[in-house]
Every structure is written in structure tokens, then in C-alpha cells.
Specification:
mainly alpha
């Protein structure tokens, strides 16, 4: 992987990881377009940029990283358990789904779901406006929804946001809970991949890795900030439409 490829993939990771449009799906498509081999070195690079994205969330929500928020983090860990269990048990089966066609269909299906949920969404009926107010039962159901993100193209952020909206969280709270839930999820995935591919780091092109890390961190930080402003003024309809159009285009070109 050269520096140009590292920058492009870093931008895609930082921009799409926390938006409901599937970072994995976009990176699969981008890797195909750029001719990047899905080898151990590429996987090691993905570990680096995912870690950068985690740091961006932690910096933005640094006030949540305290012992005063223990109850919130217990709920987040409860929400994390379903995907941890299912992902570990079916990890070999999930790998077989990593292809552009699956990504395309999941983009379309996810987009339709967003449009349907937004159509029936009534702001006055959603009373949870702070992540600390999320109940344990709501956290569990958001965690169950997150399991669907194991299918490439679904989007972890999209699945958790939809899950939050369906159990009574408002748009902002669903989004923030999704951001915070990304920390244990991505930390677990990054840690597992780091142990699995640690040998590749010794022979890696560190210049490209460092450039990609910085790129992913900066883009993720800016994206999260802008997304929080966006979602307080607008709905998720635009993301639903984008997902459908992107999925249709993929089906046309593959």
C-alpha cells in the first residue's frame, strides 16, 4: 500500500465509520477500485485507522470517560455483548459475505429501512434525550440491532441508530449512543486483529501507516462534529436515499 492509497482509505474510514452508510462497504468498494490486495498488510493498516477513529470519539466525548459515568458504560458493555458473541461464533461464515454484491444489496435494504423508520418517526413520542437516560432494556435492543452490522454494507452506525430510534431514543441520543458504543466494539475488533496480524507490523511501510492514521483521525473528528450539528437540524432521509442510490449503482457496475 502506497501513501496515496493510505490517504484515500484513511479518508474513507474517517468519514464513513460513524455515518450510517457503512465504512466496511465503502472500503471494500474502494479497495477494489484502487486495486488494493486484501492481504495481511492491508488488514494491519485497517487496524491502525480503526484505532485512529476510536481516539477521535474518545477525544470528543472525553467528559464521558470518567468513573462518574460507570452506569452508562455498563449499559454500553451490555449493548456490546450480542455482537461480540455472534461475531465470535460465526466469524468464519461472516467472512464469506465480504463481496461487492452483498454490500450493494445491504446498502439498498438499509436505505429502505431508514426511509420507512423516518416516515413513522414522531419526535414527540421519543422522550430519551440524553445517553445517560438510556435504560438497560433499550441498550440490549440496540445491541441486538447492531448484530445485523456483521453483514457487510449494513453499517454498524446505521444499525445502532435505527435500533435506538425504534426503542424510544431521539435522533441525537441514538447517534451519540452509537458513537460511544463504537468504542468497545472497535476496541475489541482492533485488539483481536492486532494480535492476529502483529507480525505484519514489523514489515509494514510505516510512513503510509502514519499518514493514514493521522488522516483517519482528523477526518473522523471533523465528521463526528459536523454530523452532530446536522442531525439536530435534519433527518436521516438523505442517508437513506444515498444508500439506495449507491447500492443501485454498484449493482449496475459489478
Amino acid at each position: 500500500m502506497d501513501i496515496f492509497q493510505a490517504i484515500i482509505i484513511g479518508i474513507i474510514e474517517g468519514f464513513t465509520e460513524f455515518l450510517p452508510i457503512s465504512s466496511t462497504g465503502h472500503m471494500i468498494v474502494a479497495s477494489e477500485f484502487l486495486g488494493i490486495d486484501q492481504n495481511a498488510v492491508t488488514k494491519a493498516y485497517e487496524v491502525i485507522i480503526q484505532f485512529a477513529a476510536i481516539l477521535a470519539v474518545m477525544l470528543i466525548y472525553k467528559e464521558k470517560m470518567s468513573f462518574n459515568k460507570v452506569n452508562l458504560w455498563i449499559k454500553l458493555m451490555v449493548s456490546f455483548l450480542p455482537i461480540a458473541a455472534v461475531g465470535f461464533i460465526f466469524k468464519d461464515h461472516i467472512k464469506t459475505l465480504f463481496n461487492v454484491e452483498t454490500v450493494a444489496w445491504m446498502f439498498i435494504i438499509g436505505g429502505v429501512i431508514f426511509l420507512v423508520v423516518e416516515y413513522f418517526y414522531k419526535e414527540k413520542e421519543h422522550h430519551i434525550s440524553e445517553v445517560e437516560e438510556v435504560s438497560f432494556s433499550q441498550a440490549i435492543w440496540v445491541g441486538v440491532a447492531q448484530v445485523f452490522s456483521l453483514i457487510p454494507g449494513t453499517s454498524r452506525a446505521g444499525a445502532t441508530i435505527i435500533g435506538g430510534l425504534l426503542v424510544g431514543l431521539d435522533r441525537k441520543t441514538s447517534t451519540e449512543f452509537s458513537f460511544l458504543l463504537a468504542i468497545p466494539v472497535m476496541a475489541a475488533v482492533t485488539g483481536y486483529d492486532l494480535l492476529k496480524h502483529y507480525e505484519e507490523f514489523a514489515n509494514a511501510e510505516w510512513t503510509a501507516f502514519i499518514v493514514g492514521f493521522v488522516t483517519a483521525f482528523v477526518v473522523a473528528y471533523i465528521t463526528i462534529k459536523l454530523f452532530l450539528v446536522f442531525i439536530q437540524r435534519f433527518t436521516f432521509v438523505a442517508f437513506g436515499v444515498y444508500r439506495i442510490l449507491f447500492g443501485v449503482i454498484l449493482l449496475m457496475v459489478i
